[in-house]
Amino acid sequence: MEKLSGLSVVFPAFNDSLSLPEIISKTSRLLPGLATRFEIIIVNDGSLDKTQSVLEKLQNHFPFISIIKHQKNLGYGKSLLDGFTKAKYDYIFYTDSDGQYDVGELRELIKAMDPKTEMVTGFKLNRSDSLSRRLIGSLYNRLIKMVFKLKVSDVDCDFRLFKKKILRNLKLRAMSGSFDAEFMKKIQEKGVIIKEIPVHHYSRKFGKSQFFSLPNLFTTFWELTKL
User: Fold this and answer.
1) Model confidence over 103-134: pLDDT tens digits?
2) Could you list the residue range(s) of the whole structural domain that residue 220 is in?
3) What is the mean pLDDT of the chain?
4) What does the pLDDT look like over 130-143, one tens digit per residue?
5) Domain tally, the chain
6) What is the CATH number of the domain that holds 79?
7) Which residues have CB under 8 Å from 66's CB, separation 6+?
8) Cβ(67)–Cβ(55) under 8 Å?
9) From CA 122, how far away is CA 120, in angstroms rounded?
10) 216 φ, ψ to 5°?
């Protein structure tokens, strides 16, 4: 596998102080074998736990880490957009900070990236969540694919590698969990060549999902309605 010329890794984080040390350490060990130049950008979206102090300690160990701090919670989409804006390399990878995806599978995304492909996105083999969340996730995914006429299998699989150039002239408004739907719809309209590969999904070791809280669900569906 050829190394990428440069890779920016973006992690949005909210109250992820317990999971961050493991995922950042693993990513840091992985990156030298995947890209000639690399960086990790972590967006602390107004966390109320010890996320910021954990990130500052990690930054002391890994100088290629940069931190964006939101003074208050601005939303998942806003965190990703800020991370993408700061990214300085030709390829961007993003995933969540809760450890439900294995960053080691980034290697498979890179293997699938060829000169014609502009994005490689994962689709979950098995969703390791409670039955209620699996049902909500399945209904959400089907609804979004139908309403937005999306061709990807798994809209909300936040495990994606793409060429930074696809962001040019791409105007995104979604600040919440509806970001994925808008992002995938607009790059599909733009004619971006997308490849899908299967990835594993694991149970959370720490904390709980923020997406499934009532305020976040309301905000997401309100944004989707406007979109």
Assistant:
1) 999 999 999 999 999 999 999 987 665 666 66
2) 4-226
3) 89
4) 666 667 667 777 77
5) 1
6) 3.90.550.10
7) 39, 40, 41, 42, 59, 86
8) yes
9) 7
10) -70, -40
